[in-house]
TrEMBL record:
Keyword field contains Transport: yes
Annotated protein name in UniProt: Cobalt/nickel transport system ATP-binding protein
Family per similarity comment: Belongs to the ABC transporter superfamily.
ABC transporter domain mapped to chain residues: 5-235
Length: 243
């Protein structure tokens, strides 16, 4: 199947210093790829670069088969990519929850009643239907996170890029979120330090180390609870053949 996203030799600088160096990554339909790595490794930078929010110093970015290097080129494809920002307050802007979640579907051309119906169905799928009429900026941190995710799911994007989706989210809502993402046909690029969430969702994992993207393995070891650990694959070297 043709890739949805394709990065070749992507290098991104921050303050003149390479944060990402020669990154190769391909995301195909049906894939759910976890991006892991320590704080400051460049995970958020990578997601932002993919949709043109950070300039590439070198390399190529292809979205849905088309090379993107300019703002108009990226803008054309952003509606097909749902991006969950690390900070929920950067994402929420409508007065009420239901208006916020319906905003995306409305923007994509749905009528008001259908957009609202879709918004409420998505809120219920995530177990937060009761929040529909609440004032967005008065929600708790975890509630805001889930409302942002509902907004993305309601848009039915082809790709979702999620930066720390379970931040502040309790276990039960985390399970509902994971199920919603498993049921959703969008391919996923997932940045998370929550290894249990990643283990139950990702089809493969990549780790960012010193600016390089390397293949990682997800192992699950059944204990009293199930734990998931991510280890570097033995044969991970450069990324080019590992993406
Ligand atoms: N606006 C900025 N200007 C300059 N440097 C930045 C900026 N934002 C991030 N950086 C630096 O770029 C590097 C990568 O940051 P990034 O946010 O991509 O890391 P991350 O892997 O997502 O980290 P975390 O797990 O803590 O969220 C870090 O060294 C960070 O300090």
């Amino acid at each position: 199947m043709n890739p949805l996203l394709e990065l070749t030799g992507l290098t991104v600088l921050r303050d003149g210093r390479p944060v990402l160096s020669g990154v190769d990554l391909t995301l195909r339909p049906g894939e759910r790829v976890a991006l892991v790595g320590p704080n400051g490794a460049g995970k958020t930078t990578l997601l932002r670069a993919i949709i043109g929010l950070e300039p590439a110093a070198a390399g190529r970015i292809r979205l849905f088969g088309e090379e993107c290097a300019t703002e108009p080129a990226f803008r054309k494809f952003r509606p097909r990519i749902g991006f969950l920002f690390q900070d929920s307050d950067d994402q929420l802007f409508c007065p009420t929850v239901v208006e916020d979640v319906a905003f995306g579907p409305l923007n994509l051309g749905l009528g008001a009643a259908e957009a609202e119906r879709q918004a409420i169905a998505t809120l219920e799928e995530l177990g937060i239907g009761h929040l529909a009429q609440r004032v967005t900026h008065r929600l708790s941190g975890g509630e805001k996170r889930l409302v942002c995710l509902a907004g993305l799911l309601a848009m039915k994007p082809d790709v979702m890029m999620l930066d720390e989706p379970t931040n502040g989210v309790d276990d039960e809502h985390g399970r509902q979120l994971r199920q919603a993402l498993l049921d959703c046909p969008a391919a996923l690029l997932l940045v998370s330090h929550d290894s249990q969430f990643v283990g139950g969702l990702a089809t493969r994992a990549m780790i960012i180390r010193q600016g390089r993207l390397l293949r990682a393995e997800i192992h699950d070891h059944p204990h009293v609870h199930q734990h998931f650990h991510i280890h570097l694959a033995h044969d991970a070297r450069g990324g080019a053949e590992d993406n």
